[in-house]
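Duplicate of #3305? Posting structure anyway:
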C-alpha cells in the first residue's frame, strides 16, 4: 500500500517529441532526487510519457521513486491485437501505472464504459495501478456531478471486481469541460465530487490505499486552494515547465509536511 500523503501525476499526452520528453524527464528527475516532498516519501509522483518513450523515461527516473506509466493499455494481455500495448508488456518494461478512460480517449477514440472497465481490469491483473479517469461531460451542479461520477466509478470497477483483481487505484477526477480550459473547476465543485468518490472507494475493502486526485487545468496554486480536500493533482499543460512541478511540490510540503495526511 502507498504510504504517501499526496499524489502528483503528470500526463505528457502527445505534446512533446523525444528530445523535449527526455529533457523534461531529466529535469523532473533531478527535482525528485532533491526535493524534500519526494525524498521524504510525502509525495507519490508519476509521469506518463508517450508509449515509445517509456523505456528512456524509466531510465531517467531510475532511483528517484517517481513511477512511470502509460497513457493507455490494451484490455487484452497478448495475441492478435495490432497496434495495442498490453499491461503485461508495460509491467515487464517496469511501468507501475496505466491511465485508463481519459476524456480524450472517450471523445476522440470512441472508448465507452465497457472498454474502460476492461482496461481497468487489465491494469489491475497485471499489477499496474490504474489512473482511472472519471468526470462529467457537461457543466452540472457539484451534487449532480458527484452522483454521476460515483455511478461511473462503480461501473468502471465492476469488471475488475468480477475478475477478483484487487489493488489500489488512483481515481483522477477530471470534469471533461475543465480539461484544456483556461482554469480548473471551482474548489467547491472539486471538493464535493472528490469527497463522494472517496466515500465510494471506502466501500471497497480490496481497494485499500486508493486515492482521489483532481485533473483539468490544474497548476501551481490549486493544491494550496484545495488543502486536504483532494489527494493530489493530475497535471497536463501546466506541468510542462519543470519549475511549475517544483512549485507544486513546495505546496505539497507546506500543506502536509507537518505530518498531516490528505484523504
Ligand atoms: O487531462 C488532463 C490530465 O490528464 C489535464 O490536462 P490540462 O491540465 O492540460 O487541462
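Output from current build:
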Amino acid at each position: 500500500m502507498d504510504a504517501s500523503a499526496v499524489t502528483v501525476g503528470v500526463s505528457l499526452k502527445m505534446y512533446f517529441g523525444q528530445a523535449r520528453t527526455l529533457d523534461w524527464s531529466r529535469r523532473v528527475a533531478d527535482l525528485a532526487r532533491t526535493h524534500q516532498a519526494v525524498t521524504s516519501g510525502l509525495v507519490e509522483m508519476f509521469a506518463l510519457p508517450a508509449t515509445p518513450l517509456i523505456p528512456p523515461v524509466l531510465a531517467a527516473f531510475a532511483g528517484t521513486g517517481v513511477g512511470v506509466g502509460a497513457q493507455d493499455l490494451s484490455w487484452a494481455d497478448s495475441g492478435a491485437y495490432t497496434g495495442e500495448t498490453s499491461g503485461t508488456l508495460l509491467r515487464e518494461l517496469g511501468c507501475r501505472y496505466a491511465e485508463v478512460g481519459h476524456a480524450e480517449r472517450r471523445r476522440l477514440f470512441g472508448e465507452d464504459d465497457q472498454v474502460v472497465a476492461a482496461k481497468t481490469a487489465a491494469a489491475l491483473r497485471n499489477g499496474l495501478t490504474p489512473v482511472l479517469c472519471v468526470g462529467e461531460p457537461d457543466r452540472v451542479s457539484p451534487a449532480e456531478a458527484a452522483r454521476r461520477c460515483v455511478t461511473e466509478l462503480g461501473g468502471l470497477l465492476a469488471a475488475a471486481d468480477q475478475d477478483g483483481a484487487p489493488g489500489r487505484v488512483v481515481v483522477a477526477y477530471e470534469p471533461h469541460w475543465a480539461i484544456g480550459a483556461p482554469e480548473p473547476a471551482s474548489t467547491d465543485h472539486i471538493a464535493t465530487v472528490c469527497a463522494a468518490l472517496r466515500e465510494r472507494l471506502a466501500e471497497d475493502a480490496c481497494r485499500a490505499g486508493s486515492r482521489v486526485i483532481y485533473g483539468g487545468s490544474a497548476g501551481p496554486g490549486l493544491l494550496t486552494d484545495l488543502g486536504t480536500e483532494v489527494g493530489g493533482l493530475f497535471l497536463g499543460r501546466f506541468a510542462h515547465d519543470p519549475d511549475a512541478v517544483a512549485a507544486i511540490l513546495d505546496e505539497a510540503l507546506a500543506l502536509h509536511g507537518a505530518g498531516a495526511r490528505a484523504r
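Confirmed duplicate; merging threads. The radius of gyration is 17 Å. The mean pLDDT is 95.
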